[in-house]
Amino acid sequence: MFGGIEKAFYIAKKDLKEYYMKPGTISWGLIFPFVFSLAFMIRRGGMSVWLAPGMISLALFFGSTSMSAMAIVFERRIDSFERLLLFPISYVCIALGKSLSSFVLGIIALIPVLILAEIFTSTPPLNPLLLMVCVLLATFTSSTFGVLLSFLIKDPSQTMTIFNIVRFPMMFLSNVIIPVNTFPQILKIISLLMPLTYITEAIRYSYSGIYDIIPPYMSLSVTAILGILFLYLSSLVIKRNIP
Amino acid sequence: MLNLYFRGDDILENDNACVIVVEGLTKKYGDLVAVKEINFCVRQGEIFGFLGPNGAGKTSTVRMLCGLTKITSGKAKIYGYDVVQNHKNVKRIIGVVPESSNLYWDLTCLDNLLFCGEMFGVPREERLSRAIKLLKSFGLWDKRNVKFKNLSKGLKRRLTIAAALIHNPKILFMDEPTAGLDVFSKRMLWNKILKLKENGVTIFLTTHNVREAFEICDRIVIINKGRIVALGRPWELKRAFSPKGIVEAIFHPRNPKVEEISRLRGVIGVVEEKGLLKIITYDAVSVLEEIAKLAKSRRLDIYLLNVRGLDAEELFMKIVGDS
Ligand SMILES: Nc1ncnc2c1ncn2[C@@H]1O[C@H](COP(=O)(O)OP(=O)(O)OP(=O)(O)O)[C@@H](O)[C@H]1O
Ligand SMILES: [Mg+2]
């Protein structure tokens, strides 16, 4: 068990060494969320208390998923991924290792946006400790989501396209930048199917004490459950992917 | 179909010295049967050669044993552990050189080895010293800080082999380790393999270097179209063909016609290569007598006369061809 966690750390360390400077990670993971937040802020003439948590969730989501796209899909394409199957570790350990490197990148991507929010919003976070817990949990779940998606992709050359086909609708439908309450009923239902909605609602509650559609105990617990569920599903998909 | 099994000394389960036991192992890719119900056992400390033409099913077999490919049916045990159910225990004791050199592109040679050491649970204080030793012994010390993707093909191969040894495995699987290696590196590798054997490591080797395999392997399997067509010690395989010796001859001042020789008693076939007659025979002794008679009647001198068995490659081609 602990041996497995230690090895997951080694995988994450290795991934970070290899991929944090890759164009795909930097452009989509780090630059995009920051520039997007900046642009949004400038257009709206400041960052509202409602928008700031959305931007935070966007940053950690793009940061972490971009890393998994690189570290998993690229490795699968060049056969290196198979090496992980030669080590005496479980499939969950592989999924965890890959999630941890995504996690680190999610946190890195989040920091500049957090600073923007800190500078440009009128009120500071309501509950910094809860916010921190939420952010860590949210980053974990978004990481395992990216890992699962990466293992599901069949054709690696389409990675960034597929990731963006998944990420952009989520960005608009998950209460990140457009309030779900302004949506027609059908879109509201769709937004409830998006993991990012729960992540964003949890962060928003801990940041500002408000929530739009999902009560905090619900958004927090769903985020946690999804994180573990995605991790477990990833391990199943890894096993299933063995030819 | 040839039957060159030496099953007498290959009793499967009862053989305590067997470290790999394979029974009825089958691999299908859709409708294609890549490996069909093969059985064999590999003994502790031997070099086990797994030969066959392209597409015979060698890689599929290795990959099934190492957990890189699902087993369609049948079972395989390594040191008593089922390779599917106990894959973690199996992976602890085996080292694998996959068919393609697939280490991490953006890690340096040293980092690649250290990472493998970490993943195999090599104690922290030993990782670096083992990695350094391997880099030196595979002639990669100068390249220790070069990224894997920037190595040449042969150097990539060498590092991939080194990486399989970082945890001192008890069994080493090598799928065409010599692919892309120059003559020097090949020699070095064959010597390393022999040295590993001296240290008690069991080696499972697939290769297209048939000659070398016949020299260094303790036992050899020949697989064709997913089935084992011969299994035995190299000399056993050779002996099975010994009646079919090859007579090489050169006459002076000129050779008789090929057709004429092919009519001699005991001859299967004749080819003439650059003035050298290669006569494949059922019975070398009677062919020698016939040749002596022929020379006498034609008043030809025999410039060269030589009898030999099939060499390893000819034998391999013969076995595969007959099957
Ligand atoms: N992933 C795969 N999907 C479909 N067919 C496959 C796959 N891998 C191998 N095969 C087929 O299975 C058969 C055996 O292939 P395998 O790679 O085991 O041969 P091999 O003996 O290693 O050949 P080589 O000497 O060329 O490496 C071949 O017909 C091959 O085309
Ligand atoms: Mg092969």
Describe the structure.
The complex is a heterodimer of chains A (243) and B (323). Chain A is mainly alpha-helical. Helix content of chain A is 78%, strand content 0%. Chain A starts with a helix and ends with a helix. With 323 residues, chain B is α/β, with parallel strands linked by helices. Chain B has 2 domains: 4-239, 3-Layer(aba) Sandwich (Rossmann fold); 241-322, Alpha-Beta Plaits (2-Layer Sandwich). In chain B, the strands form 3 sheets. In chain B, strands 1-11-10-4-9-8-7 form a 7-stranded mixed sheet, with helices on both faces. Chain B has a 4-stranded antiparallel sheet with strand order 3-2-5-6, covered by helices on one side. Helix content of chain B is 35%, strand content 29%. In chain B, helix 3 crosses helix 4. Chain B is elongated, with a radius of gyration of 24 Å. Chain B contains 11 helices and 15 strands. Adenosine-5'-triphosphate binds at residues 29, 32, 34, 52, 54-60 of chain B. Magnesium ion binds next to helix 1 of chain B.
The gist of it:
The complex is a heterodimer of chains A (243) and B (323). Chain A has ten helices and no strands. Chain A has helices spanning 2-19, 23-44, 51-77, 81-84, 91-120, 128-152, 159-173, 185-192, 195-208, 216-241.
